[in-house]
Amino acid sequence: VQDLSADLRAIIDLQGRIILLSLLIMGILFVILAVIVVRANKIMARRAEERLLLEEKLGEAERLATLGKMVASVSHEIKNPLGIVRSTAEILGKRISRVAPGNEHLAAIIVEETTRLDTIVREFLDFARPRELTTQLESFNVLVTRIDRFFEREFKKKGVRIVTELDTDLPMVRMDGEQMYQVLFNMVFNALQAMPEGGTLTLATGYDDQRNEVSLRVSDTGIGMDEDKCTQIFIPFFTDKNRGTGLGLAIAKNIVEKHGGRIEVWSRIGEGSVFTVILPVEDNPSPDDRSSGVDDGNGQG
Fold first, then answer.
1. Same domain for 89 and 234?
2. Residue 84 sits in the same domain as residue 221
3. Are residues 174 and 251 in the same domain?
4. Which residues make beta-bridge pairs with 298?
5. List of residues 6+ apart from 280 with CB closer than 8 A
6. Which residues of 175-206 are buried (b: 16+ CB within 10 A; e: fewer)?
7. Domain count, the chain
């Protein structure tokens, strides 16, 4: 009789190995399947979160669009009678000086407040009905010189020292000069409000030849902002001031982005803030495009 015990043990050993290998393969497949399921759940959760975020943004956009239409309509109706009130107050001021000397300040208050209201109305209109760009080659340096002249008396009144650092070789860029002036105006105005006790305001321009971009920097030594506020200042209607609409920087951001640019912000409590407007330069500018528009690039006031 032939002894088959060795063959039987070999068969049993082979079966055991096959079972162990099968279990190992099943375990690996199970782990892979579990990883896939976990990743799929994470992706689905992220997609659901993104969908909710998009829905919120869409709802916010629709709300702002409706609000913008209402604001534009109301602002337009207010603007005309507001102008009449102001001009009438100016006439009354002249007559009061002759009839009741010493009371001219009453008419001056009306003129001042109607001027402030007119500014608010214009901000609402600019936000609700953004103007189309009318671009031509212009220089940031020209805007700085212009804003310096406009605010000269206000700088002295507030005790603010103005420093200009202008790049005399600054390339000209295609921009809507009036709208970019509005951007600079809003930033300088905010800087003055951030320095109630006076300080130093620096207006600087520069050119980054690596990125082919020009920059306009507005820096102050005011009260500064925390990180949370820095993330909210461009949100329409956000403001922590007693007076103001919270639209100035939102409008500025829209204008700069329409030019294909961006605004960068740095701020620290107690140290001040720096707002930098950056615009792209045309890839193939003409030889006459590199012109600063100023004779001297550095100055102090």
1. no
2. no
3. yes
4. 165
5. 173, 212, 213, 260, 261
6. bbbebbbbbbbbbbbbbbebbeeebbbbbbbb
7. 2
Q: Please check whether residue 13 lies inside any domain of the structure.
A: no
Beta-bridged to residue 124, according to DSSP, are none
- The tokens 């803030």 sit on which residue? 273
Over residues 82-93, the pLDDT tens digits come to 778 888 888 888
The answer to whether residues 285 and 178 belong to one domain is yes
Q: Are residues 161 and 207 in the same domain?
A: yes
Note the pLDDT tens digit of each residue in 112-149. 888 777 777 777 767 666 778 889 999 999 999 999 99
Residue pointed to by tokens 């669009």: 65
Strand runs labelled E in 157-271 = 160-165, 173-175, 199-208, 213-220, 262-268
| Other Cβ atoms within 10 Å of 130 Cβ, number | 14
Model pLDDT, residue 95? 83
Beta partners for residue 202, in sequence order: 163, 219
Q: Per the domain annotation, does 25 fall within a domain?
A: no
Query: Exposed, middle or buried: residue 32 (CB in 10 Å: 0-12, 13-18, 19+)?
Result: exposed
Cα–Cα distance between 212 and 277 in angstroms, integer? 14
In a domain, 43, yes or no: no
pLDDT tens profile 205-238: 999 999 999 999 999 999 999 988 998 898 877 8
User: Mind listing the pLDDT tens digit for each residue in 164-202?
Assistant: 999 999 999 999 999 999 999 999 999 999 999 999 999
Strand 272-280's sheet: what is its strand order? 262-268, 272-280, 213-220, 199-208, 160-165, 298-300
Domain membership of residue 274 as a residue range = 137-300
β-strand pairing of 199-208 with 298-300: unpaired
